[in-house]
Model the fold of this input.
Amino acid sequence: MITSQLFSRFTILQKTGFQKFGCMLIVLCVASISFQLSAFELTAVDVQTIIDNDSRPFNGRIIISDTDTRYVNYQAGTDIAPDSIFMIGSISKTVTATLVLQAVDQKKLALTDSITDYLDIIPDNPVMISQLLNHTSGITAPKSPSINAGSQFIPASQFSYSNYGYKLLGDILAQVYQQPYAQLVNQFTEKNQLDIHAGTGSIAQLHDKQTRLINGYTEQQQQRTQLTDFTVNNDFIAFGGMQASSDGVVAFVNGLHQGQFLSAASYQAMTHASTTRHHRWGDTGYGYGLQISQQDGLVEYSHSGYIPGYISLMLYYPQSQLTVVILENTSWDLDDIDRVFGLHDKIRQAVRKQLTTYE
Done:
């Protein structure tokens, strides 16, 4: 696209008699573009060095790429393959937010709709769909058999990360389309040829249905054991239970940010920081299913995930169209947060250092 725009401008210059100036302009611009494309130099060797110097091992897949180049295509661990499928945890929330915004684009619902328009639930305070999307609803689950939901705070007054809120979004979509939520996810991913899946059942049943699903492991007191007691139901799909390969997540991230899934208005709403999340990276914005950082002049959209057996991270930098995806099949002991997430943070820091140096 950039090259075609340059040659279009050169044609105009030719017509106005500035051929020599036009040629010089093209040479300078192409040289500048070539520098920008080659400036990102983080490699699998650099990633390996970060892993070797970390406090824990790595088992999984790491991809760092832009629209033209795959800079890192790294894997490590027993039975890990390029097409291995992992549980992606809360990256599922970004998929759910995308499906909600598609429903908005299709006029099936509105962000300002009350959740009681779709659900048999009575919240303490009126809650809008948008407030579920950006974790500002404050809603808490009713105690069965009551349908009276509790509230942590007045909606929109603060941020409180809520798996339950995203479970309700899955319920709303199931009601709108009159289909189980897992089926809606699979229809979306099949239509867009994404290696992302929504299966339900015990972990053994999930392995039977999806043979590429890699075994998950948990850690307690630095003892790593295979995950065997774990079940995914339709409620869990919406906020943490989807499965994907690393390439599947990369394709989803690229499609989302390059305009394949949403209208311009819905994408703008999704990537607008409508609240603030206190995070180990410092305060970040939160839109609809996405964290938003603009530290150091670098725009970054992200989401991470942690569930039994698996950890995940996705990052996207729109200024360079760079995507980072990290999927692991071990949920490290949360008693040491730095040990759990430090490796991901170090890779993120290395990427950001490269981008802030050259952009």
